Amino acid sequence: MSSKRYKKLPEKTLDLNAETIEKVLPNIKKNCTTKFDESVDLSFQINNKQKKSDINIRTVVNLPGGTGKKIKVAVVCEEAKTSEAKEAGADIVGGDDFVEKIKGGEINFEKLICTSSMMIKLSKLGKILGPKGLMPNPKLGSVTNDIKKAVSEAKSGQAEIRNDKDGNIGVSIGKKSFSDDQLIKNYNAILETLDKEKANNTLKGDLIKSAFITSTMGVSYKLKLMKNI
After folding, report:
1. Which residues, at least 6 apart from 61, have a Cβ–Cβ distance to it below 8 Å?
2. Can you list the domains of the chain with their CATH numbers?
3. Which of 87, 99, 140, 181 falls 20 to 30 Å from 34 in CA-CA distance?
């Protein structure tokens, strides 16, 4: 049963023609009628011409406008790297002792970064970290010896882009409280990343069939992409 608030939102927005993000954003923000700062979210559908089983997109994008979220970052590293991690802003830093805590189920962080030499110890915790999406990955920049850069980027605003088994990609570009300029910059950064992933996957034709934008408790609108991806 829909709430009174939801019933006041526009109906059949998906019947409207696709528009650019610049034209749609005012409507998205207008529809944010809850008391909290709603997220502005994108949803992409992979082109039917692509075999979904052949698509494996998993990467991160540094959002120039930030995410509006405070991320608790943990680092597993050698003692020599401890100071570097702490100075970069890591919330939790540790070595073998920290690995044992994770093994025991003590997971009070949202992003885990580790040095290359410590990865062999964390790799044994795949059943614990994997299902939570916390296993460090070289492709995502979370297995690295440049701890300062990894922590700084995770703190300043990163979004993970990955497709599900049905060929959908969902990602947030910020909050309602963000300026249009911030949201548009984040949106463009995501499109650029998808374009690079298309090239890296050597796909046939376009990667994206359709794109939609909505807020946490709002309704969806079709997005017109300004270039084929």
Report:
1. 158, 159, 161, 189, 190, 192, 193
2. 11-57+163-223 (3.30.190.20), 73-157 (3.40.50.790)
3. 181
